[in-house]
Specification:
Blueprint: H1 5-18, H2 23-30, H3 34-41, H4 48-58, H5 74-90, H6 95-104, H7 107-113, H8 115-118, H9 123-136
Helix pairs in contact: 2-3, 5-6, 5-9, 7-9
């Protein structure tokens, strides 16, 4: 399940449209107004109770996942920042563009999760690994 309320609302919107329901029709099924459905689909007014009622009305299941917060060492942050800078230079991107790209296509997540192995490689090899992960996830830098 999505982890941000606007994303949860978008999922409900998509499912409602898949079923061919209007906001008014869905509101009637769950006992709220059309404007309340609009707010929910825009990520506002979402509670666990609302998620449960909408999920039932739309014929989907919802679950909540609790994960422990992981901490990243200062050494890992320094290494990842250096890799990010090298990635940006290699692909002629600004650091912000590189960061956005690597976030979107999971290159940063990969580098953080696999820091223990990645930091033993050269920066060039880390950049190659991040690029490969991004390409695997739909990215297309060249």
């Amino acid at each position: 399940m999505a982890d941000r309320f606007d994303e949860i609302g978008s999922l409900f919107l998509r499912r409602r449209k898949e079923l061919g329901l209007t906001q008014k029709q869905l509101g009637e099924k769950v006992g709220v107004t059309k404007s309340e459905i609009s707010k929910i689909e825009n990520g506002r007014g979402i509670t666990f109770a609302t998620i449960n009622r909408l999920s039932e009305a739309l014929g989907v299941s919802a679950h909540v996942e609790l994960k422990p917060v992981s901490t990243v060492s200062a050494d890992a942050i320094h290494y990842i920042v250096m890799c990010l800078g090298m990635f940006a230079r290699r692909y002629n991107l600004t650091k912000r563009e590189a960061c956005n790209y690597l976030s979107r296509f999971k290159g940063l997540d990969f580098s953080i999760r696999h820091y223990e192995a990645e930091h033993q490689l050269s920066l060039e090899e880390c950049v190659e690994d991040m690029a490969a992960i991004c390409q695997k996830n739909g990215g297309a830098v060249s």
